[in-house]
């Protein structure tokens, strides 16, 4: 507990030292699962960093535990994040030329007894299995930002993506739609002609027309690198209002 307290205080000091720099420029968080998050760090509390992404109506907040973060770049100053959780202990073998005894311990304070040279500390083991990144986004139904909501996440080819939408939006003219859309509502200008009008859709990259029908929920593998955008399958967004509440889960391919 004392070690963890010291590490948390260290992370707090790092945050305070660089908070003024982060206001002037976007901070870059590199997560241990390979994700890269760009935003402004506004708080550190309870072992969690709070990051603001976007501006105005598109602004949203994400939180990350210190042990999820590999490093943070404050205005081009890289700061490594120390793991504050006690890792599982692995066996340690003495000098094989003298003794093949293996010492195993689950106690983080335990060290291997002295050999002929010096005491050896039991090394730590960190689980490298990628954990899904989970966050929520409001997808506006109107033509703000040309009708696309940037999730703020840069996906990589091969990433597993799960998107779930809920809520109801107004399409104007007395028409209201859930994320599945309205199949009977004609719209010659919608992006996906073979799918329901007003439905939740997605695309990877701002230069890509390979739109993905999401509806209430969709799981797919990213076919390319790029920012993940979400939108509404409708041609005229001028008279729309409301927003879908969308949950996103992304698992890195490696």
Can you offer a commentary on this structure?
The chain has 254 residues and is mainly beta. Helix content is 9%, strand content 42%. It contains 1 helix and 22 strands. It has one helix at 2-24; strands at 27-31, 36-45, 48-53, 60-65, 69-74, 77-80, 88-89, 92-93, 102-103, 111-112, 120-121, 124-125, 133-140, 148-155, 160-166, 169-172, 175-177, 200-204, 212-213, 217-221, 226-232, 243-251. A 6-stranded antiparallel β-sheet has the order 4-3-2-1-5-6, covered by helices on one side. A 4-stranded antiparallel β-sheet has the order 13-22-15-20, with no helix packed on it. It has a 4-stranded antiparallel β-sheet with strand order 14-21-18-19, with no helix packed on it. Strand 3 and strand 4 (60-65) form a beta hairpin. The two termini are 32 Å apart. Mean pLDDT is 75; it is low at 16-24 and 76-115.
Task: Please bin the fraction of helical residues.
Answer: under 10%
Strand order of the largest sheet: 4-3-2-1-5-6
Report Rg. Answer: 24 Å
Mean pLDDT across the residues is: 75
- Main sheet characteristics: 6 strands, antiparallel
Q: What is the structural class?
A: mainly beta
Strand-residue fraction? 35-45%
Give the strand tally. 22
Low-confidence runs of at least 5 consecutive residues: 16-24, 76-115
Spell the H/E element sequence: HEEEEEEEEEEEEEEEEEEEEEE
